[in-house]
Amino acid sequence: MSTEILVNRARAICEKNGARFTAIREKVFRLLADLDGGIGAYELLEQLKQTEPGAKPATIYRALEFLTEQGFIHKIESSNAFLLCHHFGQHHPAQLLICDQCGNVTELHSHLLQDEFNRQAVAQGFDIKQQTIEAHGSCKRCRSS
Description:
Blueprint: H1 3-17, H2 23-33, E1 39-40, H3 41-48, H4 57-69, E2 73-76, E3 81-84, E4 94-99, E5 105-108, H5 111-123, E6 132-137, H6 140-144
Parallel strand pairs: 4-6
Antiparallel strand pairs: 1-3, 2-3, 4-5
Helix pairs in contact: 2-4, 3-4
């Protein structure tokens, strides 16, 4: 899906939610939309500084917090990186396949895995607030090269 289509979807969701999709938030969103994998906040800040020289760490963290709250991005906890969710519009559990060689991240949506995970959590008396499952390994492209 093109970056413009994703940006327009994000704008529409923000408008519907009464949230402000500011110029900085849009720029950070666009930077994430142009990536195949995750990126750290400071790497993202360096890219943002190319068009916003006065950007500070707080600038990027506020934008990332907003994008996370809107359900536009996922945080990859194991690498402290961020990834655009191409299925955004509602908060949902995610399963991430992370290639340790090239950094590519594939987002899956297995209802079977989600249901079993939730069932076992309930059996333990655990209330899940957010669910992201990360699997590290090698993608098909890296294994075949």
